[in-house]
Amino acid sequence: MKKKLLSAVLSATMLASVLTGCGGSTGETPAAAPAETTAATEAAAPAETTAATEATDTTAAGTGKVYYLNFKPEQAQAWEALAAKYTEETGVQVDVQTAASGTYESTLKSEIAKTEAPTLFQVNGPVGLATWNDYCYDLSDSAVYKELKSDDFALKDGDAVKGLAYVVETYGIIYNKDILNDYFTKDYAVVKSVDEINSFDQLKAVADSIQENKDDLGVKGAFTSAGMDSSSDWRFKTHLANLPIYYEYKADGIGSTDAIKGTYLENYKNIWDLYITDATCEASLLSSKTGEDATADFALGDAVFYQNGTWAYGDLSANGMSDESLGMLPIYIGAEGEENQGLCTGSENYWCVNKNASAEDIQATLDFMYWCVTSEAGCSALSGEMGFVCPFNAFDSYPATNPLINIANEYVSAGKTSVSWTFTTMPSEEWKNGVGSALLEYAQGTGEWSAVETAFVDGWATEYAAANN
User: Fold this and answer.
1) Residue 271: CB partners within 8 Å, gap ≥ 6?
2) DSSP-assigned letter for residue 384
């Protein structure tokens, strides 16, 4: 797992400190590989040298069809519209099904076993590839692979290219500039500029001060609700948990492990305590709070801080927030040197083609992928409507319209070290669920922090062993 910094300021090809082969916004890792059922294997795997050796950007009508199992609910309508446009232009049928948030693994496991299985699906990185490798077509000779800007965005098994990262994303603590700037004018403000918030201690001091003076500021809390239902818990059991893993890997000079030590779990506790204490709701209510609740907290101006990523821009914009009101801070946990830390940047969205599909459907799928990343319609939809940063050549001509992406670029330009998406090395979805359950029990006061530590450390060793047995 190597890390390579690639940057293009204010460009839709913002590429920064990305783990080689690492992988939507839900942070879900496919866990158990499905049995190679009769339904899934009745169609013979095509010869990988003739079915799709060279995709083009056009497909003759009626020579195959595409079934895309989409990972990102927030882009469901945009994908359906893009598929319809492709069908209108080419006559090729493209069906898009979107898994509900937090259900991609179970949906894929179910759909892949059907006679009409997805021809295009995705995995989150090396762990996901280990689960689904036997279903992944080798893309080495495809035209869409040749459009990839760097092999840093290819997911490989030896020399075989099994997945292509189609979006690079960034997350951190999104903040409301208007409310924060108002706070800076107050006598009780502990800092006078967002530039002074460059450590956990400073972040906590500001959040505590906002919480104490929330009535004067007209907010309900410093942070949005940290909902722990399936539409929101991935922000904490996956994305927030990335930080202690990242710093442990960095300290130990490794890129993965079979036994996490939990060196930074006290830091994890500190930031989680901040989220659930300086918040818009009582911690006892978190089991019923959703991702939509958090979005509403932030968009309505009830909270100043909101942990989420570049993908959240569409929802915030749709809820009336202006670009000028949005800022983003790194997630500080009190680690040494964090004043030089940037945002968390990487990918867990790797396109894979189902090698058990018919030769015609494989070709049609490759053609659709190529069209998505080379045509004006495809590039405009992915970079504009969906707000993606896509690591393909054509996107140099499509500047980012998402202000959160431009903020991420500014951190790179300032020389800040992007935090890699080490959560793609988490051993299983079951591990995440164990950590999430322990986090919720602790927040509600029905469990101890020691249970989180046990789920994190012991659970990692158990799940890693089970996955690699």
Assistant:
1) 200, 240, 243, 331, 332, 333, 334
2) I
DSSP 385-405: IS--B--BGGGGGS----HHH
Reduce the DSSP state of residue 303 to 3 states and report it: strand
CA–CA distance, 161 with 2 (Å, rounded to integer): 17
Q: In whole angstroms, give the CA distance from residue 86 to residue 368.
A: 8
pTM of the model: 0.80
Q: How far is CA 311 from CA 71, 114, 169, 282, 317, in A?
A: 13, 31, 7, 27, 11
Q: Indicate the SS3 state at residue 283.
A: helix
The answer to whether 223 and 275 are in contact (CB under 8 A) is yes
* Structure-block tokens of residue 274: 């901040």
Chain centroid, CA 323 distance in Å: 21
User: Dihedral of CA 343/442/29/127: which sign?
Assistant: positive
Q: What is the pLDDT of residue 82?
A: 98
pLDDT computed for residue 127 by the predictor: 85
Instruction: Give the mean pLDDT of 361-371.
Output: 98
* pLDDT number for residue 468: 84
User: Which of helix, strand or coil describes residue 335?
Assistant: coil
19 vs 28, which has greater pLDDT?
A: 28
Between residues 416 and 409, the one the model is more confident about: 416
Q: What is the mean pLDDT of residues 365-375?
A: 98
Task: Identify whether the C-beta of residue 204 lies closer than 8 Å to the C-beta of residue 334.
Answer: no
CA distances (Å), 402 to each of 69, 166, 382, in order?
25, 17, 11
Per-position DSSP letters for 141-162, written without gaps between them: T-HHHHTBS-GGGEEEETTEEE
> How far is residue 54's CA from residue 43's CA, in Å, rounded to a whole number?
22
All domains of the chain in start order, with CATH: 3-168+347-420 (3.40.190.10), 171-345+427-467 (3.40.190.10)
DSSP three-state, residue 169: strand
Between CA 416 and CA 368 the distance in angstroms is 37
Give the β-pairing of 341-346 and 169-176.
Answer: antiparallel
How far is it, in rounded angstroms, from Cα 222 to Cα 236?
Answer: 17
Mean pLDDT taken over the chain: 87
pLDDT of residue 62: 55
pLDDT at 348: 87
| Whether the Cβ atoms of residue 302 and residue 219 lie closer than 8 Å to each other | yes
Query: How far apart, in whole angstroms, are the C-alpha atoms of residue 130 and residue 117?
Result: 19
Rounded-to-integer distance, Cα 316 and Cα 331, Å: 20
